[in-house]
């Protein structure tokens, strides 16, 4: 995986950007990070934890979450907050209600929400079933609304406000091979605008980040053997000529959650080394043909 090797270690963020922010920045505030056990979510939870927040991480795989918590506990300093985990499938309203209740019971009202859980599989639209399209829209768009509503109702509508950051993608020019996710993320970009207007009176800011290509083992394991081809095709088109790191997304998320961004709401911030400004090459696919130019990746190559 030469391309991945080139990408890894490009940003020296260990310990993770804590020097950029005051250690007291989020002291005592409750933060919920969905998908906080891996990749971007873990880097974000880690940064918030080291900046004093009480952080709940939540996703489907208990073992992964437990390991993430143990890692953070082992890194604890005098400035660190608290860390906890619970399992959730954000596609279930009942599970999301239980998640919010458990988080509030343990750490108090959620003031910082990072809607990081998400993902998709790669497929040409012509090969994609309606069920598959719906599944990805449910995960990324509908569940972003579901979690935001649950946290707003329970914690942020009380006049003391809060800050929400949702996870989008670089979708301005469409995204061959990811029609479902691109449509869902475009929906997120618009959703944060409406929520930011409607919830401003409650002191709630709502923004999104749109990462370019961010390398983490967990994210790229979804590509399987296709990762190297994908990177070879996409790397040259990134003006920064490298992939991003989860820590580089976490830093922007922390900024958007912080008082430094107190007048920023309804925005989607691109984090892609300039890649949102250039035309993308097509994603490499298995069997290109005239009728289905992007083909369909094998199921093991999930992204
Ligand atoms: C430039 C890139 C930048 C982005 C990077 C990242 O995002 S990195 C982050 C990367 N991280 C992630 O992406 C993590 C999150 N991703 C996921 O959990 C999955 O990709 C998910 C969103 C599909 C949900 O999966 P699940 O298993 O819970 O869902 P389910 O069992 O309910 O299936 C529903 C239906 O979807 C369809 N379908 C599913 N897979 C494929 C496929 N490979 N092929 C074709 N179709 C597929 C199929 O129709 C299936 O129904 P069926 O035919 O089985 O009756
Ligand atoms: N890496 C990249 O290049 C980019 C990533 N993104 C987005 O950033 C976010 C983080 O991705 P990244 O860290 O790279 O990859 P990861 O695969 O590491 O992160 C995805 C996270 O979402 C969680 N998750 C997935 N489905 C559910 C669900 N139904 N309920 C609860 N949690 C769920 C996963 O945990 P579990 O499986 O245990 O549930 C996992 O922790 C995702 O939304 C991704 O699409 C956006 C642009 C680029």
TrEMBL record:
<dbReference type="GO" id="GO:0006633">
    <property type="term" value="P:fatty acid biosynthetic process"/>
</dbReference>
<keyword id="KW-0521">NADP</keyword>
<keyword id="KW-0560">Oxidoreductase</keyword>
<keyword id="KW-0275">Fatty acid biosynthesis</keyword>
<protein>
    <recommendedName>
        <fullName>Peroxisomal trans-2-enoyl-CoA reductase</fullName>
        <ecNumber>1.3.1.38</ecNumber>
    </recommendedName>
</protein>
<keyword id="KW-0443">Lipid metabolism</keyword>
<keyword id="KW-0444">Lipid biosynthesis</keyword>
<comment type="pathway">
    <text>Lipid metabolism.</text>
</comment>
<keyword id="KW-0597">Phosphoprotein</keyword>
<dbReference type="Pfam" id="PF13561">
    <property type="entry name" value="adh_short_C2"/>
</dbReference>
<comment type="function">
    <text>Participates in chain elongation of fatty acids. Catalyzes the reduction of trans-2-enoyl-CoAs of varying chain lengths from 6:1 to 16:1, having maximum activity with 10:1 CoA. Has no 2,4-dienoyl-CoA reductase activity.</text>
</comment>
<dbReference type="InterPro" id="IPR036291">
    <property type="entry name" value="NAD(P)-bd_dom_sf"/>
</dbReference>
<dbReference type="GO" id="GO:0005777">
    <property type="term" value="C:peroxisome"/>
</dbReference>
<comment type="subunit">
    <text>Interacts with PEX5, probably required to target it into peroxisomes.</text>
</comment>
<dbReference type="GO" id="GO:0033306">
    <property type="term" value="P:phytol metabolic process"/>
</dbReference>
<dbReference type="InterPro" id="IPR052388">
    <property type="entry name" value="Peroxisomal_t2-enoyl-CoA_red"/>
</dbReference>
<dbReference type="InterPro" id="IPR002347">
    <property type="entry name" value="SDR_fam"/>
</dbReference>
<keyword id="KW-0576">Peroxisome</keyword>
<keyword id="KW-0276">Fatty acid metabolism</keyword>
<dbReference type="GO" id="GO:0019166">
    <property type="term" value="F:trans-2-enoyl-CoA reductase (NADPH) activity"/>
</dbReference>
């Amino acid at each position: 995986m030469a391309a991945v090797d080139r990408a890894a270690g490009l940003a020296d963020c260990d310990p993770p950007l804590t020097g950029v922010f005051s250690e007291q920045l989020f002291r005592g505030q409750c933060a919920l990070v969905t998908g906080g056990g891996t990749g971007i979510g873990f880097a974000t939870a880690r940064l918030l934890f080291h900046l004093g927040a009480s952080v709940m991480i939540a996703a489907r795989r208990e073992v992964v979450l437990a390991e993430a918590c143990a890692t953070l506990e082992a890194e604890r300093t005098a400035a660190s907050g608290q860390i906890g985990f619970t399992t959730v499938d954000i596609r279930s309203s009942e599970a999301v209600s239980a998640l919010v209740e458990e988080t509030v019971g343990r750490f108090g009202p959620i003031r910082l929400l990072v809607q990081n859980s998400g993902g998709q599989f790669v497929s040409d639209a012509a090969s994609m079933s309606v069920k598959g399209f719906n599944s990805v829209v449910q995960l990324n768009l509908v569940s972003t609304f579901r979690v935001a509503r649950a946290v707003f109702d329970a914690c942020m509508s009380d006049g003391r406000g809060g800050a929400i950051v949702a996870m989008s993608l670089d979708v301005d020019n469409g995204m061959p091979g990811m029609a479902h996710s691109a449509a869902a993320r475009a929906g997120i970009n618009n959703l944060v605008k409406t929520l930011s207007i409607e919830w401003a009176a409650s002191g709630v800011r709502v923004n999104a980040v749109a990462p370019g290509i961010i390398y983490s083992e967990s994210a790229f394991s979804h590509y399987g053997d296709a990762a190297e081809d994908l990177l070879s095709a996409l790397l040259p088109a990134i003006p920064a000529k490298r992939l991003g790191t989860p820590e580089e997304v976490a830093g922007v998320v922390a900024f958007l959650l912080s008082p430094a961004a107190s007048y920023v709401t309804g925005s989607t911030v691109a984090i892609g080394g300039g890649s949102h400004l250039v035309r993308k090459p097509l994603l490499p696919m298995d069997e290109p043909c005239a009728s289905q130019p992007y083909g369909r990746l094998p199921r093991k190559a999930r992204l």
